[in-house]
């Protein structure tokens, strides 16, 4: 060891989109956080480029979308290569195109601006959970350092070092087939959207800068075993066998492959070590769901971990992270496994594809699949109650209160809970109801400007991740839910402003 070991409240391993999103969420919760990454500089590769509706809503709930300018979108996605209209009620219907590298820059700037520390060129060597703290041994440019933290969160991807060090149970299926992928300059091939040819599947999309992303799978070709990476020659040769076109004269910017592996951790929480993103679940990134699933893991975990670290909530609150997100992850992995079979399967899948293409035209089927892919249909078990919004996301709604116009999205910007009285009774009673949780929960009295899902809802308690934890006629009845999700009230209760 060299020098005095640095310390942090929470240590995040991995400075990809998931780790950076989590760092920002933890800082909103008032917790010191250090992010480690083994790369000396951020990667410029954009393996993911699709942001779905629910992720767009959550980015907006932190005020982050303004930094992206105009974002292109399309109403269309797909299910296993079969066109799927993704439009559902949301401020962001459809699929939005933002390169992963751009998302990383946005989230890094946000997290650092909030006070997160990002340390690069740091390779994790060991992790030990001592029961009351976590110890990480890290290789730096000048030797080894020991970092002590209250908790460690692994956001270090499919080949998670943390997962290997803990020997965490990661059941599932290894890749049997793969899709080769490359960004190539200097080629001229037709754009293709999931074109099924006799020998395989071909996809090509030319960007405005002239670079073409090609993806190709040769029917019946198995995925190589072991940690091998494809070369551009592999991509070009497979492309020629499938399409008959020669792209070997192009200039590859990067090359990779993704297989149809399908695995999920048995537990997302191992004492003081937690897992999020691809460190917790490995799936083929078909339909652009992988990055979205990980970002939503981070938003679910961040406020809970911050509350536990600050002593505002019982340790068991972290168990709800596993309960909620493991169930969501399992469902997503299921739909991805079905899509992978449709996408990479050969002529034998033709009949199934034909039937599904007919079913997708049925409105209820279309909406069910679109809700699953977009993340808009997520509903958590938050306890007793029969209101249709309970456990679901807070609908985007314009509000008026005390003569001031606002909206539900803006009210979530601080990353706190929200006790919202929609009855028109005025601000006094909701402020009194939330006063013992001041600093953790914002109290607002307002009414919807237009009829909508919140009309007639009475009062609602919203978690920082934007999901409704309680509904009722009177905010003074929310005490049990406030206690469950935001910890015991302060003693004595803080004085009103």
TrEMBL record:
Domain (FAD-binding) ranges: 8-333
- Alphabetic keyword roster: FAD, Flavoprotein
Carries keyword Lipid metabolism? no
In Swiss-Prot or TrEMBL terms, this protein is called: FlsO3
Gene Ontology MF, one: FAD binding
Q: Which residues form a coiled coil?
A: none
Has UniProt tagged this entry with the keyword Flavoprotein? yes
- Kindly list the cofactors needed: FAD
Which species is listed as the source? Micromonospora rosaria
